[in-house]
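dumping this here so i dont lose it
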């Protein structure tokens, strides 16, 4: 008790020596338990590094040099490396995959065969390949993530015919960089892989948790049965370049996606002879979608916006040889294309239209309105630009060179302005 009362004595009644001792003790205690010191102690250990290698037929996963897996299965080796990183971390740690390998579904006990990413994980394949062997591999998705954040997939090649090359569901802060997906070399689309990259929301693609803040940097997809890149329910997207070749459906498809900044979409033979496009938006995509350039060569359509798309700007198009429309703008509002060229299409160079209320599947959408088509050079098409009803209204078609088409321009919408367009 004496010690307690001694400590509680007024500070001013103490000697200089006692005052100095108290100040030193309190300062030391505060320093010891300060957030900066605690953080420094917590961060004394370096982030873990994992490495996955193959020698002969044996895969080995090591974390900081210590083996955590040895066996014949590439997916299991990479998964062991992912699982062995620091648990419950809030900083990124990296798995380096140093060799290529083959994946099959033989002897699988799981519905989905995949590398499942955890939050704060970087998966770097260093240009190596996952080959999906066999046919009809609907159970194989080489890289998959669900409800995680701060993840990266880099320098990956996938060949063969998986269900998807990469699949993400309800994830945030995602980077995919230098991805090359070649999912079938056959002309028969039914024998190719399903799709390249796909994101979804919850139990249904359009519901549940939004995907947020995605970066797609230099993506290449070819020879798919389905879409090249299809994003559902994604808020925040940055794209440098997406290149697609010979996709069964769309090259790039944005569903219910908003706040997107895209550099280049380049598609060759996306659904040629069908209704999908090199670049397509649908299912209430928008607003704030901005694309620098779309190149679409021999696609079903070059650009197709539909079903409530809104708030979209494409600065330049280069569309050649579409089996159908060069551009079909349907049930879309606040859409602008600022220039470029459209040549040799099977249907109109640009068609602007709206469906009747109650027509088609799904809910009714707003009509095509506030659409601006300007500074285009269109030639070799049945029509240069054609606007049709019902409900289409208040669009702007200005400063387009429409010489060299079978028909020049047709305007039907109320309030639509067509000025300074050049015909034969």
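and the seq i came up w/
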């Amino acid at each position: 008790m004496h010690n307690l009362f001694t400590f509680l004595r007024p500070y001013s009644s103490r000697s200089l020596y006692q005052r100095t001792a108290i100040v030193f003790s309190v300062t030391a205690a505060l320093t010891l338990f300060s957030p900066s010191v605690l953080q420094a102690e917590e961060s004394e250990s370096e982030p873990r590094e994992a490495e996955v290698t193959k020698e002969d037929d044996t895969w080995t996963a090591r974390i900081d040099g210590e083996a955590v897996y040895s066996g014949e299965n590439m997916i299991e080796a990479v998964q062991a490396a992912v699982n062995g990183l620091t648990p419950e971390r809030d900083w990124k740690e990296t798995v380096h995959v140093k060799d290529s390998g083959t994946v099959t579904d033989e002897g699988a006990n799981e519905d989905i065969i995949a590398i499942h990413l955890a939050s704060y994980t970087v998966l770097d394949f260093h240009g190596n390949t996952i080959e999906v062997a066999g046919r009809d591999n609907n159970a194989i998705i080489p890289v998959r993530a669900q409800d995680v954040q701060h993840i990266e997939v880099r320098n990956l090649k996938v060949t063969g015919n998986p269900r998807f090359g990469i699949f993400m569901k309800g994830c945030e802060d995602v980077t995919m960089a230098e991805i090359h997906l070649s999912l079938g070399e056959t002309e028969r689309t039914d024998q190719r892989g399903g799709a390249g990259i796909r994101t979804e929301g919850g139990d249904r693609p359009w519901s549940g948790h939004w995907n947020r803040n995605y970066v797609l940097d230099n993506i290449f997809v070819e020879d798919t049965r389905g879409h090249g890149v299809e994003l559902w329910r994604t808020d925040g997207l940055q794209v440098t370049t997406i290149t697609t070749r010979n996709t069964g459906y769309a090259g790039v498809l944005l569903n219910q996606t908003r706040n997107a900044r895209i550099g280049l979409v380049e598609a060759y033979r996306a659904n040629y002879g069908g209704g999908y496009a090199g670049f397509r938006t649908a299912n209430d995509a928008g607003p704030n979608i901005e694309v620098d350039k779309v190149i679409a060569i021999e696609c079903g359509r070059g650009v197709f916006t539909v079903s409530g798309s809104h708030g979209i700007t494409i600065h330049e198009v280069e569309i050649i040889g579409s089996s159908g429309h060069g551009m079909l703008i349907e049930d879309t509002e606040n859409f602008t294309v600022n220039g470029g060229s459209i040549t040799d299409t099977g249907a109109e160079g640009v068609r602007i239209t709206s469906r009747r209320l109650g027509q088609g599947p799904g809910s009714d959408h707003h009509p095509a309105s506030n659409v601006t088509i300007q500074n285009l050079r269109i030639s070799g098409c049945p029509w240069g630009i054609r606007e049709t009803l019902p409900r289409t209204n208040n669009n702007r078609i200005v400063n387009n060179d429409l010489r060299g088409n079978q028909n020049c321009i047709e305007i039907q919408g109320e309030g639509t302005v067509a000025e300074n367009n050049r015909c034969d």
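Residues 1-44 have pLDDT under 50 and may be disordered.
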